Amino acid sequence: MSSARRVLADNGLGLFFAVIFLMALVGQFFAGLAQFNNDQHAEGLDTITWADYLTSADFVTDVTENWQSEYLQFLLYILATVWLIQRGSPESAARDEAGRESDADQMLGEHTVPESPRWARTGGVRTTVLSNSLVLAMGLIFLVSWLVQSIGGWGMYNETRLQRMQDPLTYPAYLLNADFWSRTLQNWQSEFLAVGSMAVLSIYLRQRGSPESKPVGAAHADTGETG
Fold this sequence. Notes:
227 residues, DUF6766, membrane, transmembrane, transmembrane helix
């Protein structure tokens, strides 16, 4: 196998989602631009170019309000599955494996192997950071996305108010406004439903060959097994 084909084979999952993400983002951009200009035309206002729409509050808000909810979902799920279990779900640890586990289980300190990350064996702050790095990354992306969404939503909301000859809101006032929380909570509730459904449905349903599923012949009560 050539080196290029090996790279593709070894990174197929990440590359697949990167490609369909970019395709969906580009599609969203052009569909959003068309819808925005349709609305502008219907209201007797000037249409905008693709460059203007790319940096507009509308596009930024539409993108980031989905990103923040997705990363909040991952953040909460990663944290919740440390201590909480769902009997029969491959998405859950077994009852006797819940918690942060021992250094031996986590291959830390003297239990590392030559291929272990360097920070896994050093101890102290660096090992603590590595031990929580996934949650830290998810949390940071969530907070940044939520901040950008709130700023973009604030701009959109004030544009609408100005068109209606109303005074704009300050940023703190917008954070307490129903528009901000409606945009936020409509995304959160769908993410919580999806991840909860995955944990529960995977108790009884299977997908042969997927590590997100138990083996087809595994008992419904088997917990933490993957196929």
